[in-house]
Amino acid sequence: MRNLEHVKHVIIKIGSTSLCNEDGQLDKERILKLIQQIAVLKRKGLKVTLVSSGAISSGMGVLNLSEKPKEISKKQALAAIGQAHLMQIYEDLFSLFHLKCAQILLNHDDFDHRKRLMNLSYALSSILDYDVIPIINENDTLAVDEIKVGDNDTLSALLLPIVDAQLLVLVSDIDGLYDDNPHTNPMAKLLSDIELVDDEIMNYAKDSSSQFGTGGMVTKLRAAKIVNDYGGDMAIVNGNNETALIDLLEGKQIGTYFSGKAGRTLSARDHWIMYRSSPKGKVIVDDGACEALKTHTSLLPKGIKEVEGSFMQGSVIDVLSFKGQLIARGITNYSSDELKLIKDHHSNEIESILHYKDYDEVIHADNLVINKG
After folding, report:
1. How far apart are CA 54 and CA 75, in angstroms?
2. Is the pLDDT of residue 82 over 60?
3. Binding residues for ATP
4. Which helix (H) or strand (E) holds 133?
5. Per-position DSSP letters for 336-359, written without gaps between them
6. Are 330 and 361 in contact (CB under 8 A)?
7. How many whole angstroms separate alpha carbon 33 and alpha carbon 27?
């Protein structure tokens, strides 16, 4: 048995495959069975935040479409049509258990700006204080790049610090993470408990198949790392198991459980820099700077060889090696135009080049998060 006594608030992310039948249409009976379990968790005193996919599938059902269109604009239209229908289903089914829900649509920009992030946190906190279940989805009607498999895995992971949840549960169409492809190897073993998402664990996702696919499991493992780095736990369970959520929260050995018991490795601010902000550009640094940064020193202009993108002072940017490896992410003290002038120069030369100098460092160590992945 797992000890989940520390879990007071759980985020449940439900993928389209757990909401739809084999024809890709929303299945109210399947949704009802999931809501029944959520109702049980609520009666046990747990706070629940729901992240739900399915808007595009819902729109396809409303219009009786058998195939998802390829055009982005049509996918966006389906998301707009389907989101209202999906929320109506949720409202009707939750009301059977005397539960209320609220809709929130997000884009990555909502995580990128600290003030908007705080407003989101306050709003979600108030919704939960009213004993209402927030139902959150990517705003696919306005998003372009975000309409792809696995987005809500990342979205739900980013929400964990915002709503102060202790556990993220990804409800999918597979029992969890296996050490080999279970579709082709009947001897593949389910990995029950994982303490660290390292390269070995990530490699287990490369040979996935079906619509769950390579990208699907990869994004789930990345979500686990995001959650674990904040000290939270994550689990993958099979939505076809009609008691999966209840069994998991009762501590039974079900699915794959990613423990964050090693403790929070990133502060709230560092977690925002590394995961919840959207980098506005990048700098390429030499090997010497790469090694120095691993000891958590500041980034100086001398180590920068190339500058890519257009960004302002105060933006979050990526620091890459010549091989394209992400070394760190941090808040820059200089704009991209300024960095193009002072790169490969010593700090004592900044003033003579720019005719002013606010900082010796391009990114101070306090504003720099080293990538340990």
Report:
1. 12
2. yes
3. 13, 172-173, 214-220
4. strand 133-138
5. HHHHHHHTTS-GGGHHHHHS--S-
6. no
7. 10
Strand pairing of 256-258 and 233-238?
A: antiparallel
Q: Which of 204, 179, 199, 198 is nearest to 189 (CA)?
A: 179
Residues 194-228: tens digit of each pLDDT: 988 888 888 887 644 444 333 478 889 999 999 99
Q: What is the DSSP letter of 233?
A: E
Kindly state the tokens that stand for 140.
């696919």
Q: How far is CA 350 from CA 50, 223, 243, 284, in A?
A: 50, 40, 63, 19
* Cα–Cα distance measured from residue 45 to residue 58, given in angstroms and rounded to the nearest whole number: 31
**Tokens, residue 235:** 């689990």
201, two tokens: 């664990």
Per-residue pLDDT tens digits for 327-365: 999 999 999 999 999 999 999 999 999 999 999 999 999
Confidence category of residue 143, pLDDT binned at 50, 70, 90: low
Q: What CA–CA distances, in Å, run from 14 to 18, 137, 173, 212?
A: 6, 10, 10, 13
Which residues on adjacent β-strands are paired with residue 304?
285
Task: Give the annotated binding-site residues for substrate.
Answer: 53, 140, 152
Annotated binding site: 13, 53, 140, 152, 172-173, 214-220
Tokens of 74: 């049509």
3-state secondary structure 99-128: CCEEEEEECCHHHHCHHHHHHHHHHHHHHH
Instruction: Supply the pTM of this predicted model.
Output: 0.85
Angle at 136 between CA 5 and CA 116, to 5 degrees: 100
